[in-house]
Design a protein that fits this description.
The protein has seven helices and five strands, in the order αββααβαααββα. By secondary structure, the chain is mostly helical. A three-stranded antiparallel sheet has the order 3-5-4. It has a two-stranded antiparallel sheet with strand order 1-2. Keywords: ATP-binding, Cell membrane, Ion transport, Membrane, Nucleotide-binding, Potassium, Potassium transport, Transmembrane, Transmembrane helix, Transport.
């Protein structure tokens, strides 16, 4: 077989595989996802009054003292650059970051800090916090919104999601959904 015939065959294979695996397969996966889990294939966008305010799948920076605060992020919640710091727990930069977060914790929550209040998730975009971290913020959120503590506590319990299928993962609270419900109470 001549070199030119081999080159032509390789080029055809490249074009066919590119179309098959680079266009048709991703389109089929997206289509199945759009049918099987509607909304998620579109980014699980959350709208309020017709305006997109976030995604159920991506954490957001929260600085308003009247709202529940999110888990720390190593990438400022930038969806285009997700990822953790990859620092060891004993790395000086990591120790310093945790100590800074521990000091800041006292201004947003009460009690002992939870792990998710001090450390970022592996993606840096986790939209959830633990129910314990949410409950630790109840007093501040109630005070800042002029609400009864029990009202805010009920809201946290209402928005606490159980483990997937009853055994996968941990109970969690989606901060965006919780804050939207909270602002609806004001």
């Amino acid at each position: 077989m001549s070199f030119s015939r081999q080159l032509l065959a390789a080029t055809r294979l490249l074009v066919v595989m590119t179309v098959l695996l680079g266009v048709l397969y991703p389109a089929a996966v997206w289509a199945v996802g759009a049918v099987a889990v509607p909304g998620r294939a579109e980014g699980s966008l959350v709208t309020r009054d017709g305006e997109v305010v976030g995604s159920r799948l991506l954490g957001q920076q929260v600085e308003d003292p009247a709202l529940f605060h999110s888990r720390p992020s190593t990438n400022a919640y930038a969806g285009d650059s997700s990822g953790g710091s990859n620092l060891a727990a004993t790395a000086p930069d990591q120790v310093s970051a945790v100590e800074e977060r521990r000091a800041a914790y006292a201004t947003i929550a009460e009690g002992e800090p939870t792990a998710d209040a001090l450390t970022a998730s592996a993606s840096g975009l986790d939209p959830h916090i633990s129910p314990e971290f949410a409950r630790a913020q109840v007093a501040r959120v109630a005070r800042e919104n002029g609400l009864e503590r029990s009202e805010v506590q009920r809201l946290v319990e209402q928005y606490t999601q159980d483990r997937d299928f009853g055994f996968l993962g941990e109970p969690r609270v989606n901060v965006l959904e919780l804050n939207l419900a909270l602002t609806g109470m004001r």
